[in-house]
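Here is one record:
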Amino acid sequence: MIYPIVAYGDNILRAEAEDYPQDAKDLTPLVESMFETMYKANGVGLAAPQIGMGHRIFVIDSTQMGDENHEGVKRAFINPIILDEYGDEWSFEEGCLSIPDVHGDIIRPEKLTIKYFDELWNEHEEEFDDLTARVIQHEYDHLDGVLFTDYIKGLKKQMLRAKLVNISKGKVDVKYRMKFPLKK
């Protein structure tokens, strides 16, 4: 099932997500649908709040990024906890399916250690670096109600304001289904 992507301005993107219950029966179909939705929108990551669900789940496929030096991973992260972020900080231009046609250079640490469950409830603790770490950090932020645009400051942020308002009003052209905030 392909979900519509929740657009900037919807309150769920600013809410802190809750742990996904381990006794829930629908996890594997949900993860499959999240991957399907992400691919349909040409994304490399998708968090549950972006499809209107307030749970601590995200999926990534960083195999589509980078070059021959970057292997990438395709993985689901359920109830993740970033244990540490470290290494040199580096800048990279990020975008977001919920904020189409907006990009910004974001500085993040190059490595992280994360504990999470997969869709079969197997627990993992792993280290990731480079572009995979960045995608994880971006999607993890969604679970805490943080958007990449929150890291943009000053004049650049002011220059984005009109675009962000237009997105929240549904004035954006995308090739995937979106769900816009209700008009008051």
About this structure: The radius of gyration is 16 Å. The mean pLDDT is 94.
